[in-house]
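Operator note (shift B, R.M.): manual run for AAA family ATPase requested after the automated queue skipped it. Running by hand, logging everything below so the morning shift can see what happened. Input copied straight from the record, untouched. If output looks odd, do not overwrite the archive copy; leave it for review.
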Amino acid sequence: MSSTSPVVGQDAAWREWLAAIASERMHHAWLLSGAKGVGKRAFARAAACELVRQPGSAIPDVSAHPDITILEHLPANDDEAKKKAEGKPYQTRRNITVDQVREMIRRLATKPTLGERRAIVIDPADDMEKGAVNALLKALEEPPAGTYFLLVTHQPGRLLPTIRSRCRILRFAPLEAAALDQIIRRDAPHADAAAREAAITAAQGSPGIALDFVEHDLGGLHALMMRILREGDARFHLRGALADEMGARPARDRQVAALELARSVLVQELRSAPRARQAKIIEAHEVLTRLSVQATTYNFDAGLLIMEIGGLLASAAMPREAAR
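Run finished. Output pasted below as returned.
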């Protein structure tokens, strides 16, 4: 059992998880909390495997182990389910449904199959329907013996206080530049030094954003976003350039990547902004967050979406007097 995390940059969280597994009174519910893209998804699956692994045995296959249940967004319809089965990109439902949670709870009536523990991963818990949240709360209040919940969350504030109060929080910090560079070199070996440096700067500690930056060649978008924040865009010409850089028919992945990049840019700006400007930055970030959630399930008009992104950045721009 190695103390080195299977997810780069999250050794502290992994050591905390291993210590909990080894303890005699392990907490039954965990909230995996941190910014989007820092590795919580992969960590939750690795943590579930470690939890159910029998002493001396190999790490199990997370997708095939009978004592690991993962609740995530289902395909939007039968056609999208076929695409998933074929390994193709597919659209998902907007939420994790109450039926998914109820089916999981029904399984809890039986004991774990291969050992004494089972893991329930909900990813992301932020996206559960209201009915699903209420159903989960009942399971958290009276958990069956040997059942452990891992709730992946990008925004803990979206969960009910009654859910949060029953969970132990496992925090995921943004990654240092060296760890981000390691991930980019591993997963995007074609990226040159300049691309890696730009991606690390834009990502603000998120390997997911860094890899999207390289994969979708977001350097041009990033430069324009920063200009809008610095200069504003009273005549809309920078938003027009942003739309041109985005492309006429960008893939959904590129649209989602652009949204995440805009959120990262705002987070970076917030750190140095005067108090009088922070409210506008936070408001713009909240709208971008909602759009990011919706973009995975809705077919947005790409042109309108990028203009919306540009408009939100312009609303949070530095006052013209300060920019001068």
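Quick read of the result: The chain has a mean pLDDT of 91. The chain has two domains: 11-172, 216-323.
Leaving this for review. - R.M.
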